[in-house]
Amino acid sequence: MRKKYICGNWKMNKTPDEALVFAREINEKNLDDVDILIAAPFVDLDILKKNLNKNIKVAAQNVSEYSDGAYTGEISTTMLKSMEISDVIIGHSERREIYLEDDTTINNKVIHAIGEGLDVILCVGESLKTRENEEHFFHVKNQILEGLSNVEDIDKVTIAYEPIWAIGTGNTCSPEDAEKMCENIRNTIRERYKDAADKIRILYGGSVKPDNAAEILSKDDIDGVLVGGASLKVDDFVKIINYKENL
User: Fold this and answer.
1) Cα 60–61–62 angle (5° rounding)?
2) Catalytic residue, candidates 65, 92, 94, 112
């Protein structure tokens, strides 16, 4: 049985001082037996790694596809590993939509990160136009195939599905919609990686809150959540971690 994976993505929020306060507060909470991760801004990684309880993993939100060199503003896998950071999000919808990262760039990052020993959360998802054109299953399948091109070590990968069409638009991605897409993702993984599809964890990320986490996490092919805003508040994030209390 796949262990549930509760991941927080702070995006561009929290100073190091604020991150320290968060770490001290969550360390005092009773947390269910799930895997927990917080993806924080680069400036917060070291302080979280040094102050969070060891059962909470710390991840970067992005990483360069290059080892070192003249790449102003970039962060390398070597830098992350020097801080004992072993997880990274790649291909988040905001990286794709705002910073125009394409599937080739994302694939290069995935290959490089895995080759350097990092675990990767690969994000995929479709726009409203793609959804309305009923091309969403094909689109996400293609993102996975392109993003994992030439990747053999699928054990180092978690997939996160983000319904871009339902984030900040007023549209709603129901747990049933999310489950259908996550089932499609697992079937795509099965086509290429066979039985490894039964082990890979698939997360849902899209307006996850304490009051809907239990229903989302009850679905067969949803193995965890990628939480945005609700991961910034200790009490809300803990309620999502302890989602079984609402079953």
Assistant:
1) 95
2) 92
CA separation, residue 20 to residues 44, 170, 233 (Å): 8, 34, 13
Active site residue 92: yes
Identify the CA nearest to 18 among candidates 63, 48, 38: 48
Whether pTM exceeds 0.90? yes
Residue type, position 132, single letter: E
Q: Which domains does the chain have, with CATH numbers?
A: 5-246 (3.20.20.70)
Task: Report residue 170 as tokens.
Answer: 């007023």
| Contact call for residues 89 and 121 (beta carbons, < 8 A) | yes
Do residues 171 and 177 lie in contact, with contact meaning Cβ atoms separated by under 8 Å? no
CB 5 within 8 A of CB 223: yes
Going by C-alpha positions, the residue among 84, 76, 146 that lies closest to residue 115 is 76
- What counts of helices (H) and strands (E) characterise the chain? 10, 8
152 is catalytic: no
Residues 90/113, Cβ–Cβ less than 8 Å:
yes
- What pLDDT is stored for residue 246 in this prediction? 78
With tokens 């924080």, the residue in question is 40
Strand, helix or coil at 206?
Answer: coil
Which listed residue (65, 101, 162, 179) is catalytic? 162
Tell me the C-alpha distance between 144 and 170, whole Å: 27
pLDDT digits (tens, 9 = 90+) for 169-207: 767 789 999 999 999 999 999 999 999 999 999 999 988
Q: What is the DSSP track for 118-145?
A: -EEEEEE---HHHHHTT-HHHHHHHHHH
Pair type for strands 119-124 and 87-90: parallel
Please tell me the distance from the alpha carbon of residue 28 to that of residue 43, in angstroms, as a whole number. Answer: 23
Q: What is residue 170's predicted lDDT score, i.e. its pLDDT?
A: 64
